[in-house]
Amino acid sequence: MSIDSVLSKDLTSVRRSGALWGVAVCLTMLATMVAYVNIGRGAPPLREAQDAYGLLAGLVGVLVPIVAIVASYMSITGERASGGIKFLLAFPNTRRDVFAGKLLSRLAVVGVIVLFMFVAATAITVAKYGVLPVGVAVGVFAVSLVYAWAFVALSVAFSSATASRSQAIAAAVGSYFLLVILNLTFRFSQVVRLVYDTILGLGENPHLYAAADYVSPYIAYQKAANLVYPAAMERQVFRLPEEARETLPVYLTDEFSLVVFAAWLVVPLALGYLRFQRSDLQ
After folding, report:
1. pLDDT tens digits, one per residue of 90-143
2. Of the candidates 68, 6, 56, which has an alpha carbon nearest to the alpha carbon of residue 32?
3. In this structure, are residues 261 and 224 in contact, taking their beta carbons and an 8 Å threshold?
4. Mean pLDDT value across residues 17-37
5. Does 13 score more than 60 pLDDT?
6. 56 vs 246: CA distance, rounded Å
7. Is 57 helix (H, G, I), strand (E, B) or coil?
8. Beta carbons of 230 and 224 less than 8 angstroms apart
9. Is 80 exceeded by the pLDDT of residue 249?
10. Contacts 24+ apart (CB under 8 A), 18-22
11. Of 102, 214, 221, 115, residue with least CA distance to 152
């Protein structure tokens, strides 16, 4: 066996997951519903269609990580818990083969789900407005795919570093609440402000507070979406005073979101792989 064999075997196993496909179908239905009920504001059809993708991006930001987590959190932990890891490694496979095969499998599955969701939403959008904003559609799909893959990478990393189902679930669900849900109401910047300004008395530093928020892939996704939106759709993601917005440092620009995504794709996987290599699988 090899990476290809592990990949093929895992894809077959994932296709049989009723829970995963149930979540995927629900997400696709929500995406088509968002595209259909997008309320027009009397703007030209092209702008209305672009706004529909803006609403779709909002849905993706909150719900797509759930699909990525459901698809990935048991990728390696499940094999360890069932004893299947011994079977995989009984063939001439290395731990690298298992890790890479599992990762590629889950990236592929989540990628197909995101693609299907966008195809369905695009069909509704074109039928409703008679126009397709190709640049916005392709751009939002691309950043959504990278965003979903960031959570796949994180979940596979947790799965490779944990030995039990409960640990994998706790790590994956905890990361979702910390990186997504908390950013809907409570942000990291509030903690940093409390320590930096209130406790240490070092004065206001809005750029530092915003940088703390930028650690989250959810915030990075919103910033990355600005790269593909027309100017009228761009959003102010950071809660900055007007004077602080005029001269943003490089690490707070929309383009820096690509660096944030790269970090979430590489760092967790590197740490998870190292932990997997050193784990006692007996």
Report:
1. 777 788 888 999 999 999 999 999 999 999 999 999 998 889 999 999 999 999
2. 56
3. yes
4. 81
5. yes
6. 29
7. helix
8. no
9. yes
10. 19/70, 20/67, 20/70, 20/71, 20/109
11. 102
Q: Are 187 and 150 in contact (CB under 8 A)?
A: no
Q: How far is CA 156 from the centre of its chain?
A: 13
What is the per-residue burial (b if ≥16 Cβ within 10 Å, else e) of 82-118? eeebeebbeeebebebbbbbbbbbbbbbbeebbeebb
Domain count, the chain: 1
Q: 212 and 188 in contact (C-beta within 8 Å)? A: yes
- Joined together, the tokens standing for residue 114 give 């995101």
What is the average pLDDT value for the chain, to the nearest integer?
A: 86
Domain interval for residue 7: 3-278
10's enclosing H/E stretch is: helix 3-15
Which residue intervals of the chain are DSSP H helices? Answer: 3-15, 18-37, 45-72, 77-82, 84-90, 95-129, 134-161, 165-176, 182-185, 188-193, 206-213, 217-226, 242-245, 257-278
